[in-house]
Amino acid sequence: MENQAQAPQLNPMPRIGDPAPDFEAVTTHGPIKFSEFNKGSWVILFSHPADFTPVCTTELSAFAQNSDWFEKHNTKLIGLSIDSIHSHLAWVNNVREKTGVFLNFPIIADLDMNVAKKYGMLHPGESTTATVRAVFFIDPQGIIRTILYYPLNLGRNMDEIKRILVGLQTVDQCACALPVNWKPGEKAIVPPPKTIEEMEERLNNTSYEIIDFYLAKKDIEPVE
Fold first, then answer.
1. What is the spatial distance between Cα 146 and Cα 79, in angstroms, rounded to a whole number?
2. pLDDT 10s digits, 124-172
3. Within its chain, how far is the Cα of 60 from the centroid?
4. Is 87 exposed, middle or buried (0-12, 13-18, 19+ CB in 10 A)?
5. Which of 1, 78, 187, 223 gives the lowest tally of CB atoms within 10 Å of its CB?
6. pTM (2 decimals)?
7. What positions carry a catalytic annotation?
């Protein structure tokens, strides 16, 4: 039987609830070990297709312009593309010169695609030479909590990224769930009862907004 060429083996796509794959990499802020970078804070790890491209410039500028907001919410930003460190540095300088925005978070130089492969950022149906616009929300315990993917020709929504982060921090703080289109300051959903006793207690709780025994809402303390 003739030998048949085999497709290259790709790493399994990371999933929500998985530990974030660890790695060491060169960045615009020097070398990092991701598990050390992640320790004690949330991390938003995001990829962009290439330096010196228009959509990516608007996106990374938006992250930079909101960096104080993310810092206030105990969240570090870190970008990635499969460009060289020299390309990253030249692009950071170019964006600052042309727009006045300084990309003040680390950007990973991933020429060997090691990190991109670990995080499933390469989607051959979209491109074999550039990462898609992936966003990973990773909590202080190093667990992936949310994953977003955008195609090459559609920029991300910064309002939604901020809403997701606050939502994740809110459910952790308040042990609740959040309804469709939830925004900070709105009521949360109380987990449904699991026994008749809990159901009766629920129906008699005057502090809840009761729709039915399985669907009730309550006011919560906002995440600062």
1. 16
2. 888 877 899 999 999 999 999 999 999 989 999 999 999 999 999 999 9
3. 14
4. middle
5. 1
6. 0.90
7. 56
